[in-house]
Amino acid sequence: MKKILVLGSGGQIGSELTVKLREVYGNSNVVATDLDVSRLTAQIKEDGPCLSCDATKAEQIAAIVKEHKIDAIYNLVAILSATAEKNPMLGWDVGMGALINCLEVSREYKAALFTPSSIGAFGPNTPLNGTPQDTIQRPQTIYGVTKVAGELLSDYYFKRFGVDTRSVRFPGLISYVALPGGGTTDYAVDIYYAAVKGEKFECPLAKGTLLDMMYMPDAIDAAIKIMEADPAKLIHRNSFNVTAMHFDPEEIYAEIRKHKPSFEMVYKHDPLKQQIADSWPNWMDDSAARQEWGFKPEYDLAKMTVDMLDKLSLKLK
Q: Using one digit for the tens of pLDDT, what is the confidence trace for 73-86?
């Protein structure tokens, strides 16, 4: 039975991944941590072990790994793209500090390590449509720089020290559970909240801005499946392209209006988010993930929209 440590259980991914990991491996076998434990949901606090952990301090991670005999770490600690651009050094210190600590602890205690990468690891010189698994990566954000450096470091620790490092390049993630934390694709979450609340939505990205997206259940499934994959079948490790759908603001707006005909959207341009979005691919080729470990998303835009509206209607009652 795996003993798993989740760093960042209070975040957008961690709040759902922690719950799913406990369903799969047992509540007592998944240790949830966050810098501020008050960010953890009531369910996470009640169902299993929860601890405060500053991932920028290696000794804190090591103490938990040693005490709980951890053999797999999910490192979800990062400052997201738009937020990191406002404070680049914080983005670097948190993203890279947590990663190098996790790599060193994993090397010492022989633990496997998952650290998500991102579509932000690509830049304007990358092919925009069908972005290949292996291609040029020259991002123009500090978030993207940390992700490329993270991919390289993770591969280095695998080849140099035998650390079982694995990751996926997530597109924009959409969830009804936890609010996003300052990413460029956050509009695709915020728009559903506005629709359910009956508010006019102000879209920060321009009409026609195409971006890759994924519903959180598929992202959680990918994070677990890649760590369960047969290593003998993995040609790549850090990091696999994964995606489920791609759309622009008009397309998601039109899909929501099928269920909320009176819903209104206007454009309120955010130059920073637009600049970042324009530097990212329209959609990625994820054939390597499908071939090497069987990645297969369940949700498209229509199916996700029905579920998001239903779940948010219950949540916001």
A: 999 999 888 889 99
